Each structure stands twice: as structure tokens, then as C-alpha cells.
Amino acid sequence: MDSVDSSQIASIGYDAATQALAIQFKSKTGAGSLYHYSNFTPEDFAAFRDAESKGSHFKKNIKPFADKYPYVKVEPAPAVTEGQE
């Protein structure tokens, strides 16, 4: 996983062998939920990685296409404990 400069996404990763994209979103307390997206080609990943805005690219080219890029929530965002709000 590589950290990215984004207001919505903390880090991204890619496994070419399984064509899986990993996205760790940001939350108010830091790193948020981690999702894996399937059927992601190396070209898809290069376009996402190189996008000027990762959040905009995600919203326009990945999120609306759940049939093309099925996803699973791998881990939820860490729970907020008292004093962290």
C-alpha cells in the first residue's frame, strides 16, 4: 500500500497477479475502511494511480461500476474512542 495525496483516500495498492485494487479511505481519525476491488487491470490501476485527483477518478471511474469492479470491505474503519472525537 502506498500513501497518496488525496483528501478522501489514504492509500492504494495493486496486486497484478489477482488483478485486485486495494483502497484505504480516510476517516476523521486517520485511516478508514479498506476495500478490495476485483477485475482491475494494470492499465486501470495506472490510470487511477496517475490521476491528478484520486477521489474524483474513484467517483467517476470506479464507484459507479460495481458490476465491472466488484468489491469487498476487508476491514472497517477503527472505532472512535472517547477523547478522539
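[next item in queue]
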Amino acid sequence: MDALIQTIKDSLLGITNPRFYETERGFQGELNAELRSRLPELELDGAIVEQEYQKRMKDHGFTIRPDLIIHVPFEGAGFERRSDGNFVVIEIKRRASRKSAKDDYQNLSRMCHELGYPMAVFINIDSDETFINECNHPAQGLIHAFSVKLENGEVQITERTRT
């Protein structure tokens, strides 16, 4: 998991155009591109990055739509459970409030618990704050938080993990 976290950090450092810090959707698309270009280095056996993959009630037991997931798609993979092949689930907010961050941490926790994601990541863009103290995840070491912003053309990252 350390290599995956480093890949996410490297991908965040690769987002240097100020335009992508103006909206969640723009940042999400660029992060997707950055992650996709680095994913083969991790050798995750066919894993892909998907945007806003809808979790369906009949298949997943809830309808949360995470911003990005890194997984091997269940369909056609021959897995026994939907939790097989899941690597990381990512939620992105732009200038998140304490309450919206708390809501995202709850969603991330639920996806880790119910779908077996071994790791979840919260990214607060254009901010200094991760609000990691709002995370009440029972296995809190699985939740990583980043705040990321541009200052004088340089990407500034704060990383926190709840342990």
C-alpha cells in the first residue's frame, strides 16, 4: 500500500495547471489521467482507474458514487466476491467544509467496510485542511487524507493518516 500512496502523491504533484484547482470535476479528470499513466508501474494485475463508478443497491447494498476507484472490474474477472480486486476508493472535495469532509469520511468508511477496499483516500483541493479528525472509521489506518493547492506555481501537499 505504500507504493500506491506514493503513486497518488506523485500524481497530485503532477497537477500543476491552476485551471484544475478551480473545480472538483476538472481536478478529478486530471488526477485520473495522472494515475492512469502511473498505474502500470504498480503491477496490480489488470487494475484500472474509473471515474464516478456508480455503486448499485442490488449489487453493492448502497448507492454511493465515489469520485475515483482503482480496481480490477468484477465483471469478467472470475472473482467470487465484489470485494476481490478492489485497491483504493477516492473522494475529492474542493475547499471542503468540516461537515462535508465528515460526510465523505463516512462514505469512504462504508465502502471500505462493505466492499473490502483496503484503502480510502480523501483529497481536499485548493485547501490546507484535511479534516482528518472528522474521520471516525473503525480501522482508521486505512484512511489517508491529502490537502493540495498551488502556491506560486508549486504544488503544496499535506498528508495525514488517522491511526
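[queue empty]
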